[in-house]
């Protein structure tokens, strides 16, 4: 008994088709982002960059000439199972990887791809569906087979294209209001504490300018990462690295200590400082001091620091 012959692939890059018709012809799941087919040797992948970017998924062409695609799994850390595994192992399973623009209704065939031979995927941070907590997501690097690479169109893609990869640390003006959350939780409204942080930074900047002290901030892109880090304030003449927090709670002091520890790895042994709106209670001052962090808060027309750093 001979096996039934499957429909040969006939779509070309740029062709559009109703998703229902696509699956009726070639098989695969009618919903979701990844559709491995039991009917034909294909794995269908669907991407909606505009909708995805609002939720921390930056699917699309990147500066390396590869198409980066976020894996499936809406809650908790993503794992290499189900549809994700079908992308990773598509070549070993003898399946072609077909990428489409759009997720429902009329979709457009971008082209045939294959998983990258080197660094087939990496991990990044993104929130759960419906604004849940940040978790680990898998991002695949797909090499075009019959598709023409395009310039990056996502905000993250354009930023990485303009980044000097030979230098992980780049100086930025204080007025450039980029934040890490812009590339991890872009659909999330800023908390009141973050608005207070911006006001604290602006007031400190004015104070520093009046004393002819140049202040800037940094964009840091650690090796192997695709989400940049951003410091709040760096005062070059004092080698002072400042992280602003809009509250003096233990949670915020702890967070500032961790961020300063992270950022300071990329700077020349800076003095680490936490900028807060008022004097923290004694135990939190002790906590900051135990981690070699200065605490700064407004006092009168100037600033009080513990310990004193001559600000």
Task: Provide the fold topology.
Layout: E1 16-18, H1 19-26, E2 34-36, E3 42-47, H2 49-53, E4 60-61, E5 67-70, H3 82-88, E6 96-101, E7 106-115, E8 121-127, E9 134-144, H4 155-162, E10 169-172, H5 192-210, E11 215-220, E12 229-230, E13 233-235, E14 240-244, H6 250-264, E15 271-275, H7 282-290, E16 293-299, E17 302-306
Task: Report what the structure shows.
By secondary structure, this protein is of the alpha+beta class. The protein has 2 domains: 16-162, Roll (PUA domain-like), CATH 2.30.280.10; 169-306, Trna Endonuclease, Chain: A, domain 1 (3-Layer(aba) Sandwich). It is built from 7 helices and 17 strands. The protein has helices at residues 19-26, 49-53, 82-88, 155-162, 192-210, 250-264, 282-290, and strands at 16-18, 34-36, 42-47, 60-61, 67-70, 96-101, 106-115, 121-127, 134-144, 169-172, 215-220, 229-230, 233-235, 240-244, 271-275, 293-299, 302-306. The strands form 2 sheets. Strands 1, 2, 3, 4, 5, 6, 7, 8 and 9 form a 9-stranded mixed beta sheet that branches. The longest helix has 19 residues, at 192-210. The protein is elongated, with a radius of gyration of 24 Å.
Report the mean per-residue pLDDT as an integer. 92
The CATH architecture term of the largest domain is: Roll
End-to-end CA span: 86 Å
Radius of gyration: 24 Å
Q: How helical, in percent, are the residues?
A: 10-25%
Q: Give the overall form.
A: elongated
Count of DSSP-assigned helices: 7
Q: What is the CATH topology of the largest domain?
A: PUA domain-like
Number of domains: 2
Uncertain residue segments: none
CATH class of the largest domain: Mainly Beta
User: CATH superfamily of the largest domain, called what?
Assistant: SRA-YDG
Number of strands: 17
């Amino acid at each position: 008994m001979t096996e039934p012959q499957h429909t040969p692939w006939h779509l070309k890059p740029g062709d559009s088709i109703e998703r229902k018709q696509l699956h009726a012809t070639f098989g695969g799941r009618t919903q979701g982002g990844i559709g491995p087919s039991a009917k034909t040797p294909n794995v269908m992948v669907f991407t909606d960059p505009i909708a995805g970017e609002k939720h921390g998924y930056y699917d699309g062409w990147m500066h390396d000439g590869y198409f980066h695609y976020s894996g499936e799994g809406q809650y908790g850390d993503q794992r290499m199972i189900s549809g994700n595994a079908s992308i990773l192992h598509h070549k070993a399973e003898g399946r072609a990887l077909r990428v489409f623009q759009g997720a429902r209704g009329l979709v457009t065939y971008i082209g045939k791809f294959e998983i990258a031979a080197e660094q087939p995927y990496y991990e990044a941070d993104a929130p759960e569906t419906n604004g849940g907590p940040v978790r680990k997501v898998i991002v695949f690097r797909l090499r075009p087979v019959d598709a023409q690479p395009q310039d990056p169109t996502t905000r993250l893609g354009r930023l990485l294209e303009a980044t000097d990869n030979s230098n992980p640390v780049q100086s930025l003006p204080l007025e450039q209001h980029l934040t890490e959350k812009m590339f991890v939780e872009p659909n999330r409204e800023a908390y009141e504490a973050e608005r207070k942080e911006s006001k604290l930074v602006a007031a400190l900047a004015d104070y520093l300018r009046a004393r002819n002290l140049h202040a800037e901030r940094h964009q840091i892109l650690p090796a192997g990462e695709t989400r940049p880090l951003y410091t709040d304030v760096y005062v070059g003449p004092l080698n002072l690295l400042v992280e602003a927090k809009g509250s003096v709670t233990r949670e915020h002091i702890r967070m500032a200590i961790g961020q300063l520890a992270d950022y300071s790895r990329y700077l020349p042994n800076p003095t680490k400082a936490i900028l807060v709106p008022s004097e923290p209670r004694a135990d939190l001052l002790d906590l900051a001091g135990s981690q070699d962090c200065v605490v700064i808060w407004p006092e009168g027309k100037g600033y009080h620091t513990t310990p004193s750093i001559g600000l």
